[in-house]
């Protein structure tokens, strides 16, 4: 059964592995990455099987969580793997990576609710969030 799945943090090791598997199974994948200008990471995602017809790429940064709304719209499932990696308190609205990670999860949940289509949210935390 074909479904739309949003994967945040899709260019990471686990994220790209999940995107590959979802594409192989015939799902449409909305994949987010911090920077669509990163030729290496974007190239990796675009080279995956079925990417040409089933992969949609979105630029979204966990430090600006509202940027995820467009990627989540229309999806039945969201797998949230994005995490803040480099925290610079002097330019961030968050005091540390934990606060940024928690705010990111809260915003992703809000985006899922707002979409009206998301049936399930799967969240994978990293050591950064602990």
TrEMBL record:
<keyword id="KW-0521">NADP</keyword>
<dbReference type="InterPro" id="IPR036291">
    <property type="entry name" value="NAD(P)-bd_dom_sf"/>
</dbReference>
<keyword id="KW-0560">Oxidoreductase</keyword>
<dbReference type="InterPro" id="IPR001509">
    <property type="entry name" value="Epimerase_deHydtase"/>
</dbReference>
<dbReference type="InterPro" id="IPR050425">
    <property type="entry name" value="NAD(P)_dehydrat-like"/>
</dbReference>
<dbReference type="GO" id="GO:0016616">
    <property type="term" value="F:oxidoreductase activity, acting on the CH-OH group of donors, NAD or NADP as acceptor"/>
</dbReference>
<dbReference type="Pfam" id="PF01370">
    <property type="entry name" value="Epimerase"/>
</dbReference>
<protein>
    <recommendedName>
        <fullName>NAD-dependent epimerase/dehydratase domain-containing protein</fullName>
    </recommendedName>
</protein>
<feature type="domain" description="NAD-dependent epimerase/dehydratase">
    <location>
        <begin position="5"/>
        <end position="126"/>
    </location>
</feature>
